Amino acid sequence: MALGLLAAMGIKYCVNTGEAWIVYANSVMSFFYFVMIAFALKRIFAGGGNASRIGDILNPCFAFSFCFWGSMAAGASLERCGQVDFADWKLWLSSLVVALATAPMLAWTIKSLESCQSRKKCLADSGKECVKGKKYFFCLWGILFLAYMIPFLASFPGFFTYDAETEVYMVFTGKYSAHHPVLHVILLGWIIRAVHYITKSYNVGIACYILFQMAVMSACFSYMMSFLYKIGVRRLIRIISICFLALFPTVSMFVCCSTKDSMFSGGVVLFTTLLLEMGRDSEAFWQKKSKRICFAAAVFLILAFRNNGLYALAVFFILFAMLYRKYWKKWILTIMAAFFIFGVSTGLLGKVFHFMPGELAEMLCVPMQQLARTYAQAPDSFTEQEKETLFTLLPEPILKKYNPKLADNVKVNFLEDNFKNDPGKYISLWASMGIKHPDIYVNSFLANTYGYWYPDTVPDGYSGKTISSLVYGDSSYFAFETERPGERIHLLPRLENFYRKCSLEIYQQKLPVVSMLFSMGFWHWCYAFLAIYLILTGNGRQAFAFAPTGLIYLTVLLGPIALVRYVLYFFFLVPLLPALIFDTGKFKIS
Q: How many other C-beta atoms are found inside a 10 Å radius of the C-beta of residue 585?
C-alpha cells in the first residue's frame, strides 16, 4: 500500500499536466491509481511460487521500468519547459518510485505471456509450405495492392513530397547531388521523365512511380504475413495485422508517398522477416536459393534508399558474423553480392550522371544544434575569439533562429568550406563548450529527438513553416501535398480531407488510446518491451532479428528533426509485435 501510494504520487511528474498539477493531485483519479497499483502488487506477491519466478527477472524489469518512467518524466519536462533539470531530485525520485511499483507488474506480465504460449504444427513442418504459402502470398499481395488504390485515388497522382520536387529537378536539369540516394533519384526522376516524354503528363509519370512503389511495398508486407501464416501464427492476429497494413492511415499514406523512406522501410520489413526465418532454421534457410536471393534483395533495398542504411548494416554484419559464423561459407557470398551490386550500380550511375558529393552538414546536425543552443542560452560563456570562430561556421543571425526541434535553420546556413579548411579548430570549440555546459548539450539532443521516444507528444517541428506549397499547422505528422510538377486531382475529397486532418492538425491525438497507434514514442517502447521479453524468455535469435532496426534507429537520432517518415519501419513491422509476443513458440522450429 505504501509503494502504491508513492507511485500514485510520483506519476504526476511523469505525465505532462502543465502548470495545473493540482488537477491531478486533487483528483479522484489519483485515488483510483493508488488502489489499482496496491491491489496489483498484492496479487502478484501473494502468488506463492509465482512470486519466486517473478523475482528471477525482477532486476532487468526494474531497469526497463526505470528507463521508461525516466524517459516519460524527461519528455514531460521538455514539453512543459523545453528542457530537463537534471538537478531536480523530484524527477529522479518519482521515476524511481513508479519504476519500483511497475517492475513487478512487468515481470508478472512477461511470465504470464510465457506460460500461455501454444504450439501447433505449422505448414512448413507439414510439407505444405510450397503450395499454400505461395498461394497465400499472391492472394494477399493482390488484396493489399487493391486496398492501397483507395488512398492512391484520394491523393491522385499520389503524395509527391519530401524532396521529390528537388530530386526530379536534378533529372530535368542534369545537376545531380548525392545528398539524396543516387538510385532513388534516378528511379523516381527517370520514370517521371520517360512517362512525361510519352504522355506529356507529369501526373501520369508520378502515378506510375507510386503504383510501382505500391506493388513493391505490398509484396514486402505479403512476404511478412505469409511467413506468419506458414509458421502457424493465430488467425486472429493475422487478420488484425492485415487490416492494420491495409487501412491504417500512417501505413497507407506512406505507401502512396514518393519519399525514399517508404521503399527503405519495405526493405527493413523484408530483411527482418528473413532474419526471423533464419533464426528459426539457419541450415534450411541457406540451402534455398530463393531465400538467398530475397536476402540480397532486402540488403540492397536498405542500402539503396537511405544513406544511413550503409552505416547500420556495416555494424550489424559484424554482429551477424559472430552469431552465424557456423554458416559463413553460405552467407558470405550473398552479402558480398548485395554490397557489390549496390556499390557498382551507385558508382556507375554517379559517374555517368556526374553526381556531386553530398553536404557534410547533414552529418553534423547534433553538434550544430548543441553549439546553437549554447549560444542562445549562455552566450557570455564564449570568449571573443570563440565567438569569432563560431561565426565563421554559423553566422550570428542564423544562431538567433535556433529551433530546439529543427536543425534545418542552422544546417542550411552551415559554412562547410570553412569547416573543411580547419576542422580541428571547430571540433575543439565544440568540445570545450561541451565541457563547460554538458547539461545544455544533453538537453539539445533530447529536445531534438524526444518526438521519437516520448509517446505523449505531437510531432510539430515544422509547425507554422511553409515548405514548397504546404503550410504546416499544429502537427508535422505528414507532408500532405503533391509538389510540382504534379498537380493534385481531388477524386475522393472526403477521404482526402481525413488524411489532411491526420497530417497537419491535432486530430487523431484527441482520441484516447487510438492516439497512441499514431505515436512514434508509443511504438518505440513497444519494440523495447518486445526486445526485453524475447531476451528474458530465451529467444535471443528472435530478438537479434530486430538488431538492424535498432541500429538504423540510432542513426536517425542524429538527424535534423523527429519525423514519422524516418521511423516508418515502426509502423510497417507492427504485425510482428503481437505474433512474437503471443505466439513466441511458433518462431522456434520444432
A: 16
Buried b (16+ CB within 10 A) or exposed e, 364-377: bbbbbbbbbbbbee
Cis bond upstream, residue 438 (ω within 30): no
Q: What is the DSSP letter of 403?
A: B
Instruction: Provide CB contacts within 8 A for 114, sequence distance 6+.
Output: 537, 584
Spatial distance between the Cα atoms of 585 and 113, rounded to a whole number of angstroms: 11
Question: Is pTM beyond 0.85 here?
Answer: yes
Q: How far is 289 from 284, CA to CA, in rounded Å?
A: 10
- Residues in the chain, overall count: 590
Which position has the grid cell 545531380? 176
DSSP lists the bridge partners of residue 210 as none
| Whole-number Cα distances in Å, 228 to 151, 220, 231, 234, 577 | 26, 13, 5, 9, 11
SS3 177: strand
Would you write out the chain's pLDDT as a tens digit for each of its 590 residues?
888 888 888 887 787 766 566 767 777 888 888 888 888 888 887 765 566 678 788 999 999 999 999 999 999 999 988 999 999 898 899 999 999 999 999 999 998 888 777 555 566 555 555 567 789 999 999 999 999 999 999 999 999 999 899 999 999 999 998 889 999 999 999 999 999 999 999 999 999 999 999 999 999 999 999 999 999 999 999 999 999 999 999 999 999 999 999 999 999 999 999 999 999 988 889 989 999 999 999 999 999 999 889 999 999 999 999 999 888 888 999 999 999 999 999 999 999 998 888 777 888 899 999 999 999 999 999 999 999 999 999 998 889 889 999 998 888 888 888 998 999 999 999 999 999 999 999 999 999 999 999 999 999 999 888 777 788 888 999 999 999 999 999 999 999 999 999 999 999 999 989 999 999 999 999 999 999 999 999 999 999 999 999 999 999 999 999 999 999 999 999 999 999 999 998 898 74
Grid coordinates belonging to 435: 565541457
CA Rg value for the chain: 25
Question: Which is nearest to 445 in space by CA: 515, 372, 505, 370?
Answer: 370
What SS3 class is residue 477? coil
Question: Using CA atoms, how far apart are residues 52 and 49, in angstroms rounded to an integer?
Answer: 5
Half-sphere exposure of 169 (CA within 13 A, CB side): 10
Nearest-angstrom CA–CA distance, 10 and 73:
10
Coil, strand or helix at 467 = strand
The answer to whether the peptide bond before residue 485 is cis (omega within 30 degrees of 0) is yes
> What's the rounded Cα separation, in Å, for the pair 27 and 10?
14
